[in-house]
Amino acid sequence: MKTTVYMDNAATTKLTPGALAAMMPYLTDNFGNPNSIYSHGATALRAVNEARKILAGVINVKPNEIYFTAGGTEADNWAIKATMEAYAKEGGHIITSTTEHHAVLHTCEYMEKKGHAVTYVPVDEQGIIRLDELEKAIRADTVLISVCFANNEIGSIQPIREIGRLARSKGILFHTDAVQAFCHLPIDAEEYCIDMLSASAHKLGGPKGVGFLYIRSGLKLGSFIHGGAQERGRRAGTGNVPAIVGFGAAAAKAVTNMAEKQEKVAALRDYLIERIGAEIPHCRLNGDATRRLPGNVNFSFRFIEGEGLLISLDMKGIAASSGSACTSGSLDPSHVLLAIGLPHEIAHGSLRLSLCEENTREEADFVVSTLKEIVARLRDMSPLYEDMLKTMNEKP
Prior knowledge:
There is one protein chain. By secondary structure, the chain is an alpha/beta fold. The protein is built from 14 helices and twelve strands. It has a seven-stranded mixed beta sheet with strand order 2-8-7-6-5-3-4, with helices on both faces. Helix 1 runs antiparallel to helix 8, helix 2 packs parallel to helix 8 and helix 3 runs parallel beside helix 4. The longest helix is centred in the last third of the chain and has 22 residues.
């Protein structure tokens, strides 16, 4: 079945025509190494620096504070591992949240094996970190706080300004994984007191395999990948010029009239949330109703399995997710849904729809009508649902 409705933009997005057009010359004629001194190399270097300037402008930082990586996962790893290595004398304690992306959580678990202490601060039932618990977790040896800007599964937006200012007031470095937020929400790294920020191109219409880590000037982070002197000596390896150029072009398009575009996406999001909540019984909206990403819709449906729901939707030409695509091969329920208090049986029946500006009201109507049919059919096959109906009918 050919996909007719794509609503999994939090997993990855379609490459925009403008990004592809910008990339093409650097895949063919302008193939020079940006670190070479001849004209081919100089042309490539100018293109890389122009992209760096565009990306820096999105978060109000200097271009020389942007370091290109192979994606958000590398940027997260770099921020955490290099910080703890560089500031080892200041302490060995990390604070993060229970709902972070696995790129952060697994890196923190790795750091625990290396002897560092990590505190995983809980979130409330909407997925928002508890600021009082965060402040209580701060110790004399706390070096780093790493909290995602917006959750990739349930879309909840964290109080980043408050976290950043708290960290700055305590002399603690603050890193945020902004992969889902970059070019979808306004971000001012200076105003929010962000010391490091991770982003990825393929979440906003750019190519896969490229991202960046913003490192505030003055931080003594070392290299994550050793070798040559690329990225001002901090990230070895020949730069992926076409991907970097595509990243810059996609970001430039994404931030043009960003507020208007995201308002449109949010309106469609709210339409979907309202219809699903009103027309499908025994469902639960996951994540904060208002402090959420413009394109994020996440529901749990009782008495069904998410895998069956996704397969059935795919057979109807609808691409969606049960949570994070990074863990789609796992049979375990989402750690994010468990962290907000859902029991295993309900967490298993989750669905994430993530929208972009190209999605339409007609597509939303098709998804809702299809979803209603699938949920009803799957519940008809569920003995638990049958037992619930019997119990309801037996009540006086």
